[in-house]
Amino acid sequence: QVPMVESGGGLVQVGDSLRLSCAPSGRTFVTYAMAWFRQAPGKEREFVAAVSWKGATVRYADFVKGRFTISKNFAENTAYLQMNSLKPEDTAVYYCAADRDNYVVDYGAADEYDYWGQGTQVTVSS
């Protein structure tokens, strides 16, 4: 069973918006910091955004600053990625990740996260 489950992806036009959601699967376990990564065809997985356990700290990749917003519902252990002004280069599979230790040094490093989802496809058509 995949630990994290993403939803909200789809096919949109340039300039449109999407909101991705991520939550633990049916298993009950604790997660702390949560993050979004993405992988486009033929490219390596890259960091998009992260939020700390209670939301006090957020980090963004430079290419999404001002367009994407990460948030977290602490009570429901759910993370969101609001994506506005989408561009064709945002086309990718978006993965949710979560930390189980409440110890993250580099929010942008994939190996800081212990739980991952299977990803949700975002396609931006021009």
Q: Would you mind describing this structure in some detail?
A:
The chain has 126 residues and is an all-beta fold. Helix content is 0%, strand content 45%. It contains no helices and eleven strands. It has strands spanning 4-7, 10-13, 18-24, 34-39, 46-51, 58-60, 68-73, 78-83, 92-98, 115-116, 120-125. The strands form two sheets. Strands 2, 4, 5, 6, 9, 10 and 11 form a seven-stranded mixed sheet that branches. Strands 1-3-8-7 form a four-stranded antiparallel sheet, with no helix packed on it. A hairpin with a 6-residue loop joins strand 4 (34-39) and strand 5 (46-51). It is globular. The N and C termini lie far apart (36 Å). The mean pLDDT is 93.
Name the beta content range: over 45%
How many individual helices? 0
Gyration radius, in Å = 13 Å
> Strand pairing plus helix content: what structural class?
mainly beta
Assembly type of the chains comes to single chain
Write down how many β-strands occur, each being a DSSP E stretch of 2 or more residues.
Answer: 11
Q: Summarize the biggest pleated sheet.
A: 7 strands, mixed
How far is the N terminus from the C terminus? 36 Å
Shape: globular
Q: Share of helix among residues?
A: under 10%
Low-pLDDT segments: none
For the residues shown, what is the average pLDDT? Answer: 93
